[in-house]
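@channel sequence for tomorrow's demo:
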Amino acid sequence: MRSRENQEIFELEEEAVLPLASGAFPRKRSAITARKARQHNEELPLIAPASRPSRTRALSLRERTLIGLLCVVLIGAVVLGVTWRTGFLLKNPLNFSASSPAPVARTVLPPHSTLIEIASDLPTSGLETLTGLPLQDGVQMAITQTNSEHLLPGYTLKLVPYDDVGTKNRHDPNVGVKNLQQAISDNLIAGVIGPSNSGVAQAELPIANRAPIALLSPSATYPCLTKDATADPDCFTASPSFQQLHPTSLLTFFRLVTTDDVQGKATAEYFFNVTHDRKALLIKDDSDAYSLGLSQAFIQEWRQLGGQLIPLDLPQLSSSEQDYQTTLQGAASTRPDLIYFAGGDPNGTYVLQALANIPALKSVTFVGSDGVVDSDLPQTAAHLHLSAPIYGTLPVVDPPHAGTPAGADFEENYIASGYNNYRLYAASAYDCAMVLVQAIQQALRQGAQTPRGAQDQAGAVRFRQAILQALAHISYTGATGKHNFDADGDTTNHTISIYQLSFSAEQPTWAWLQQSNA
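structure tokens (generated this afternoon):
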């Protein structure tokens, strides 16, 4: 048996080593127990230790906390390493917001347009209806053919027509500018056919050059639209200047007619050398770009050939039939054998009406330029019964004499298409549109893409620039012969066609006489 003292020591030792009910060991033993155990250690008999539970040292709160943090760090490192190697974090960045992350919306771009538009800017009303409307019909004829023959597979071509006639019922540069600005803002328009008048072209060229967008004119002939003073000394004083017309280095203006420096020269040569006229009464308007360029070339060549000249300057926009009659009456005493009108209609018609009332001049040969050939002057002349011959010139190949399938039966096809009042420049307008179609074809083949709808301004700029690049290197054969463009955008075809008005048929017509190749 144990003594009482030994019993107390034993119980205290048991208390020190036995685990608590909770499974944890007491943090420390009583100091008294440890002291008493040392005092009585020698007195206790050596007894084999009894079987007891294994003693394990209790972990402190601090140790357990450190171990827990270490586990968290290790687990986090493993997860981070896996996600980094798989790229998951790059594709799925962590979102610590309380709510679920919103899905990222993908931008769906609209498809590239299958509609391509071509604009025309021509005088189709007022006093110039019969001058400009046939040209617009020629453009529509080309567009209809393009769609029916699927010349642009997968695309539909559409005409957007503009009328540049202003408040005075004539072509108006200010109206032309507004038309062009509106066409540029329509991102589906790939290019513009027009203008037909040099004065309108002077106002439009800088705007088209900055846009940039292609202008293809079927009839604007003023030399200084494309030539500077180096190429043509008469352009030295031209206003606006070449630099103002072409503010950038881009080539944006093209034309399928040769220029007035060629037309005026060819006219002087024909009537001096072929009809042997020597004294010319020249009716001109130096305030009009077209009349100025044409008359300058005629004067220079006529005088060089040795002919005499009587110049009369009358402003076209403000002159009436009575104005021409008064001026021409005063010049009747000069007894010219040729009257050359360097201008357009209806002024050419006013001149003829005035000449019919002046006996000394009604039998004098009358010559007009392309501005009267492509008008309704023949109908007026038929009722005046003038005894003198009437001639006209056109700075383009006559379609039936172009030697091409498109030119041989162009007038017949024009009428068969339902169009009326055929004019020779309708073929030139048709060719302008077909040249633009060919440039669109080339641009698409080379990888250019149409805009992504009417709101895609950047796409429109890229597509128009691709078309301009194609136009600069194009080679085309059509109703008015073969055309390439030089570095200035002028056609390399410098043919001048000469006509005489014939009254042999039921309707007066321009009979082709010959052509001159400068």
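heads up for whoever presents: The longest helix spans residues 61-86.
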